[in-house]
Each structure stands twice: as C-alpha cells, then as structure tokens.
C-alpha cells in the first residue's frame, strides 16, 4: 500500500469532531493574530496620517474588501482541505472569481486612465516594499493560524499549508491597509496579490512539515 493511500485511509477513519469546534478554535486564533499584527503595524509602520478621511471614501473599503475576501476564502479553503473527504472546489472557484474581479477592475481602471498615468497607478510609491511588508506581517500571523490548524487532519498538508498562508496573508494585508495609502486598483491587484502569493507559497512549504501527521 502506498503511503499516501494509507494516510488517506487513516484520515477517513478518524472520529468526527463536534460541528463548529475547529472553526471556532481557528477564529479565536485569528483574533489573537489580528491583535499581534495590529501591534506590529502600530509599532513598526504607524497608521496612515489621512486615515480618518480615507475611511470616508470608497477606495479604502474596496481595498479592504479584497483582502478580507481573500482571508475569508483562505479560512474556507483551510477548513475544506483540513477535513478528509471534503471537496475544495467551492473555495477554489471563489478564489478564482475574487482574483478575476480584481484583475478586471485594474484593467478597466488602466484602460480609462491617461497613458502617462498608467505606470504611476501600477507602481504607486511603495511597490518595492509592499509585497515584502505583507509577507513579513503574514509571518507574524502565520504561527497562530498554523497552530490552530494542527487540530485538522489534512490529507494534503502542503495544500492545507497554502490555504493557511492565504488566510494569514489576507489577514495581514487587511491590517496593513491601515498604514498603506495606495488606492489604485492596479497597484492592489499587482503588489498586494504578489505579497499574498509569496505567503501562500511559503505556507505550502511549511505545511508539508507543520501539518503532517
């Protein structure tokens, strides 16, 4: 018998946990992770000086909606991949839709902008540091998420780790938005997504070890 087949068989024989118990545990650790990354942003970066005015406009909330949607999708995907026999098709389709909407919004924004403004909309003023900052902040949230995910029983720990990375980075990017003053959809679609993608890749590598059982 192949090792993967043995792991799958053992996982399917595990007794079911109480409905909602694992999700509640993950939510509690997400709250702790949110507090940790918030303190890190306040200590390391600070809040954007125009935050009070920014929250009154639509672009701040559009950016937050994108990162929160990715965070929520990561939560759903981790829950599915962490349970043997559950399909991950739903959250993967949702992830594709979210990314597609972000890319389409960015494309429309660029198409309707003057050619001379397009590079500035993509690069902003913080393109060089944005993905790295999200990755660093994601590294602060990840230990909470991976520790909570240890109660799951993923058949594919690498894929579950990628989902944990998506959840961690989506949460970190949402809090990072309290500092980042970039508002162009093109900037968010490129550089926020890149930072989150780097965290997803790192999560996949970590998950192969941290979520293996």
Question: How is this structure best described in words?
Answer:
The structure is a single chain. The protein is built from nine helices and no strands. It has 213 residues and is an all-alpha fold. The chain has one domain. It has helices spanning 3-12, 21-44, 51-54, 58-81, 89-112, 115-123, 130-149, 157-176, 185-210. Mean pLDDT is 92; it is low at 6-12. Helix 5 runs antiparallel to helix 9 (185-210), helix 7 runs parallel beside helix 9 (185-210) and helix 8 runs antiparallel to helix 9 (185-210). Helices cover 76% and strands 0% of the residues.
Tally of individual helices: 9
Q: How many structurally independent domains?
A: 1
Q: How many distinct beta strands?
A: 0
The largest pleated sheet is described as: none
Q: Pairing-aware structural class of the strands and helices?
A: mainly alpha
- Please state the CA-atom Rg, rounded to the nearest Å: 18 Å
General shape:
globular
**Percentage of helical residues?**
over 70%
Uncertain regions: pLDDT < 50 for 5+ in a row?
A: 6-12
The average pLDDT score comes to: 92
Q: What share of the residues does DSSP label as strand, in percent?
A: under 5%
Q: How would you spell out the order of helices and strands?
A: HHHHHHHHH
The end-to-end distance, rounded to whole angstroms, is 18 Å
């Amino acid at each position: 018998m192949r090792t993967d087949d043995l792991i799958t068989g053992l996982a399917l024989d595990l007794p079911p946990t109480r409905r909602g118990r694992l999700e509640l545990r993950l939510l509690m650790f997400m709250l702790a992770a949110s507090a940790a990354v918030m303190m890190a942003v306040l200590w390391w970066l600070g809040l954007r000086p125009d935050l009070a005015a920014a929250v009154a406009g639509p672009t701040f909330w559009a950016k937050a909606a994108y990162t929160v949607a990715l965070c929520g999708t990561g939560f759903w995907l981790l829950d599915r991949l962490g349970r043997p026999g559950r399909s991950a098709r739903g959250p993967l389709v949702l992830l594709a839709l979210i990314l597609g909407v972000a890319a389409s919004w960015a494309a429309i924004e660029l198409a309707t902008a003057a050619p001379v403004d397009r590079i500035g909309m993509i690069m902003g003023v913080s393109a060089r540091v944005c993905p790295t900052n999200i990755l660093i902040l994601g590294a602060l949230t990840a230990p909470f998420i991976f520790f909570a995910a240890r109660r799951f029983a993923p058949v594919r720990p690498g894929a579950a780790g990628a989902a944990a990375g998506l959840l961690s980075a989506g949460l970190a990017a949402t809090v990072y938005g309290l500092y980042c003053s970039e508002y162009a959809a093109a900037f968010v679609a490129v550089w926020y997504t890149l930072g989150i993608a780097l965290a997803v890749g790192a999560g996949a590598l970590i998950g192969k070890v941290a979520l293996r059982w």
